[in-house]
Task: structure prediction
Amino acid sequence: MKRYLIALAVGLCSALPSHAQFQKPEDAVKYRKAAFTVMATHFGRIGAMAQGRVPFDAAAALANAEIVAELAKLPYGGFVEGTGGSEKGSPKANVWSERAKFDEAAKSLQAEASKLVQAAKSNNLDQLKVAFGNTARTCKACHDNFRNE
Result:
């Protein structure tokens, strides 16, 4: 049921144009930050297993990977023109001037998150480690190119 509700929310959000989703620019910022925060929490749980800080739990890895994969679809609608800034963690102006490149980075994250789910389904910690590392590199590449540090 939970997966159905997440899928429904994703579908509804992606069906609307970005400008129609948010009453105010700050709502878009809150939305994308919330999606990234929740995604990072679940990704971090997988990372703890991949790095040996907690015991490997195949069921937990899969549950978290599936959440990451769903959430990887959400934040990009919150990148509405005029919602950048110069403070640490905010999007750089090139998110909008290089939108095609930014959108491609989002698709790369979504593809790697799907591979993370497949690796988690394998019940193989070594495969999970590889997929986790690839997904993390995809996140970092986007941060390096499009996020103020």
